[in-house]
Amino acid sequence: GTGTFRLALHSGVSGRPIELITDERGPGKGTREVSDDPRPYNLMVESTNLDWSFSVEEIVAATAARTPRDIP
User: Taking CA 20 as the corner, what is the angle to CA 26 and CA 54, rounded to the nearest 5 degrees?
Assistant: First the structure.
C-alpha cells in the first residue's frame, strides 16, 4: 500500500503539461475521460513499488453533411 502511480497528459509537440490524469497512493483502478483539441500527446508515468497498466481509446465524433435530397 505504499506505492505511487502518477499519470499525466503532455503535448506531443511542445512537451507542456496539459492535464494530470491521476495521482494515486497504493493499489487502485478507475476510468478517466479527457477532452482536448486534436494533437499528438505523450503520457508521462511516474511510479514506485506498484505494477501498473493503462490503455488509451480515441473517441472520434462525426456528423454527416446534409445533401439537398435530405432537406424536405
Answer: 60
Q: Which residue has 509537440 as its cell numbers?
A: 13
Measured CA to CA, the distance from residue 42 to residue 13 in angstroms comes to: 9
39-61 tens-digit pLDDT: 899 999 999 999 889 898 888 77
DSSP collapsed to 3 states, the chain = CCCEEEEEEEECCCCCEEEEEEEEECCCCCCCCCCCCCCCEEEEEEEECCCCCCCCCCCCCCCCCCCHHHCC
At residue 72, the pLDDT reads 65
Grid cell 472520434 is found at 60
- Decide if 47 contacts 27 (C-beta within 8 A): no
pLDDT tens for 7-20 read 999 999 999 999 99
